[in-house]
Design goal:
single chain
Length: 203
């Protein structure tokens, strides 16, 4: 279980550090409306990710062994692509970028809808964490639960930290975000290589 828990923690941190539509929504709300009003949005994945994870697991569980190995390889390449994107974002980080304010009342429903409509969540679970979750669950449900537990605890805690940082000390926010991007790049590269190995030798 521990290897799956550790993988979940690593992927949860990497997922929170990657700036996508959902993270931009939370950042913009924290900057414009304060961290207290934005904080409930950190728990939105608990509402929106259910259908995403279920769909991914149902699709992946029907695949033959060779196709699952191919998914590991595709996932590994995709993770390396994300690592490269994170590296470019870290290298070309611009502290002067101002995130636009989004109108309307901030609610956990709106944050969940943003995440649900973001293609990144589907790609992440279909090609990266999904195959690992299916493999762990097939071994024993405890392994699958360890992955999910590590992922969502780390993911939500990282989102909370991000919201508080951007909401209370915006001048330190970009510096911290750049550091998170750098750490995320290392995590993503390591997990990308790990998935390529799994796909090559047989998961």
């Amino acid at each position: 279980m521990w290897i799956y828990l550790i993988q979940g923690i690593g992927f949860g941190f990497a997922a929170a550090s990657q700036v996508g539509p959902f993270q931009l929504f939370l950042i913009s709300q924290a900057l414009t409306r304060g961290w207290k009003r934005t904080l409930p949005g950190a728990f939105a994945p608990l509402l929106s990710d259910g259908p995403i994870v279920l769909l991914s697991v149902l699709v992946l569980s029907q695949l033959p062994a060779w196709a699952q190995r191919a998914m590991y390889i595709l996932g590994g390449l995709f993770v390396l692509y994300l690592a490269y994107g994170a590296f470019k974002s870290w290298r070309n980080f611009d502290e002067t970028v101002v995130h636009p304010e989004l109108s309307g009342q901030q609610t956990i429903f709106k944050a969940a809808l943003t995440n649900l409509l973001s293609p990144g969540a589907y790609l992440f679970w279909m090609f990266i964490t999904g195959p690992i979750l299916v493999r762990g669950w097939q071994e024993t449900p405890i392994n699958g639960m360890g992955l999910l537990l590590g992922f969502y605890i780390t993911f939500i805690l990282s989102l909370i930290v991000m919201i508080v940082v951007f909401g209370t000390a915006s001048k330190f926010g970009p510096k911290l975000n750049r550091a998170l991007l750098g750490i995320s790049c290392v995590f993503l590269f390591g997990f990308g290589v790990y998935q390529l190995v799994l796909g090559a030798v047989g998961a």
